[in-house]
Input
Amino acid sequence: MIAFWKLNKVPLLLTFVSLFLYWLFAYDLIRTEYSKLITLYCALWLVFFLLMKYAKKNLKFLTTIAFLSRAIFILAIPNLSQDFYRFIWDGRMILEGLNPYLYTPESFILTGTNFPVSEANALYEGMGELNGSHYTNYPPINQLCFFIAALFSSSSILGSAVVFRVLIIAADFGTFFFGKKLLKTLNLPEKNIFWYLLNPFIIIELTGNLHFEGVMIFFLVWSLYLLHSGKWKSAAVVFALSISVKLIPLLFLPLLFFYFKKTNNTSSDVKKRENNEILKHVENDDHNRIPLTTKTSVDFKKLISFYTIVGITTLLLFAPFFSFEFVNNYSQTVALWFNNFEFNASIYYVAREVGYWFTGYNEIALIGKILPILVFLFVMRLAFFRRKIDTKILITNMLFAFTIYLFLSTTVHPWYIATLLILSVFTNYKFPLVWSFVIILSYLAYINLNKADKSENLWIIALEYTIVYGVFIWEVFISRRFPKHKKPV
Output
């Protein structure tokens, strides 16, 4: 025991400090305590980096810390987000046999009688008027998680939170399992997965604040691993499960266009080169070499089959909730994120100011229609930019597609960065890691909440994005680390 302590003294001390800081974050922090929030967050990041430095070769030790850090939150009520109250409401609606997509919580609260779920008033007060006045936009696998919580705890808010937390922690370790395997097959260091698993941002936003991006990410990483292993049919089903937690993976579907290839070899040339033990390659990326004698083209049969499986599986998952009223409510709710809501945006806020100069009004309705078109055009550019791609390039394209999506979004909540972070684990880019640190500034956006000015503090938003864009521009353009064709070896 003494020998173990001497060998691991620094990592163990860092672990104790880390767990204590997470306990303070979970049980002794109020969202409006801004100085305490920033201090704790920065301290956790310092300890995180030190752990990655001193224990980077001990993956079992890091895994144990990741689990214990999450376990600290098990009995905590989220202190930085209200969304989980709506999760509980939706789950209990399903438990009562009601379709959560057809009713708003407000519609029941305003009647004052016949509440469909237990603790209705407490849940409505917790989620807030804005959330309670809109139809739910959470896809069916997300609703399944809500239902499981209602099944195990139909009358306790804390009990439901515990069930949510267990599901999210399980998903994180599923991401760890398949992410580590994918890193290994891509010839990347397995320890890279801890930039996600041990990241304070991930632990706080997913385990602490109960956001289900972690479940979506689990299915996405699992799907990528299956795809890389050649099990594309299973990958399509799992990809659909990811979409059915959050709709974000829909953005990545066009990027698969050139992934499925059929190959024709010129046999005589191949044999000749093999006999001379000379095989020249066209190098598309560090891990993707294609013989000069090989011609590639899209395997449309596989591609269409993949898309079909994804589409049918997704529709089947939505089927239990289907009605024309559901389609109308769901489409309207999703549209709100582009045409009505605004928070922690970057390019949109610049466009909004330009709109004020020309018209004197907030032109979100118009800008919110233009920005998704720009995202679509960029994704199409990525999808058809290069014909020969492998899994590593596919993931890099996903990273840039989602980055541009966030840069052009009207609403960027902190937990959205989780998807960007997991994708970066399989690349050389670090700007998502930097963003996962500075995103805490978004919680200071309404630092003037109790003052006359109720709007976001744009100076704080500007500081956040100055850092993010600065690192992004350095990595992508100045350092010239954007993936590109290399000269043949």
